[in-house]
């Protein structure tokens, strides 16, 4: 259903489109799914164990990344969790950090080209200033505080 919605979005150029996604916080947690407690409190050991059981994951694993998730990440993402520019086929072609991209005009151009290649959103994205955070604690400190101008 989501694929169909995205396909419709990409193929619609004559009118605005909106995709509404009905999601569930703490999905799969038997006592916390869709509760306010899931917003600000840890699930707790027992709830985590029950959730893993529901997912048919090993209940005693402290940190688990299923193999299919790891494979998808490696195929679609670059190092550091950044999306690879189109045309990059293997890790040896992909610089390890945003700093390397910014210092290499060819890579920076490819990054900006991939960033703005969004069909009818292109004019908006081209006008948008691109800021890059090189701080590995950005999520904790706040993106605006850590961003640097490109």
Describe the structure.
There is one protein chain. 45% of the residues lie in helices and 4% in strands. It is mainly α. It has helices at residues 2-11, 37-40, 45-55, 67-76, 98-103, 105-116, 122-127, 138-141, 143-146; strands at 131-133, 147-149. It is extended. The chain has 9 helices and 2 strands, in the order αααααααβααβ. The model has no long low-confidence stretch (mean pLDDT 75). The two termini are 37 Å apart. The longest helix has 12 residues, at 105-116. It has a two-stranded antiparallel sheet.
The number of distinct helices, counting runs of at least 4 residues, comes to 9
Q: Give the strand order, joined by hyphens, for the main sheet.
A: 1-2
Secondary-structure content class:
mainly alpha
Distance between the termini: 37 Å
């Amino acid at each position: 259903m989501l694929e169909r919605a995205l396909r419709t979005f990409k193929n619609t150029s004559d009118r605005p489109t909106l995709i509404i996604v009905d999601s569930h916080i703490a999905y799969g947690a038997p006592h916390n799914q869709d509760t306010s407690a899931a917003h600000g409190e840890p699930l707790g050991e027992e709830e985590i164990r029950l959730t893993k059981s529901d997912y048919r994951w090993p209940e005693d694993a402290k940190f688990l990344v299923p193999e299919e998730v790891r494979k998808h990440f490696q195929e679609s993402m670059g190092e550091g969790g950044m999306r690879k520019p189109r045309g990059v086929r293997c890790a040896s072609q992909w610089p390890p950090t945003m700093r390397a991209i910014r210092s290499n005009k060819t890579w920076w151009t490819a990054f900006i080209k991939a960033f703005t290649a969004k069909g009818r959103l292109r004019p908006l994205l081209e006008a948008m200033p691109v800021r890059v955070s090189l701080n590995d604690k950005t999520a904790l400190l706040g993106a605006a505080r850590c961003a640097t101008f490109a």
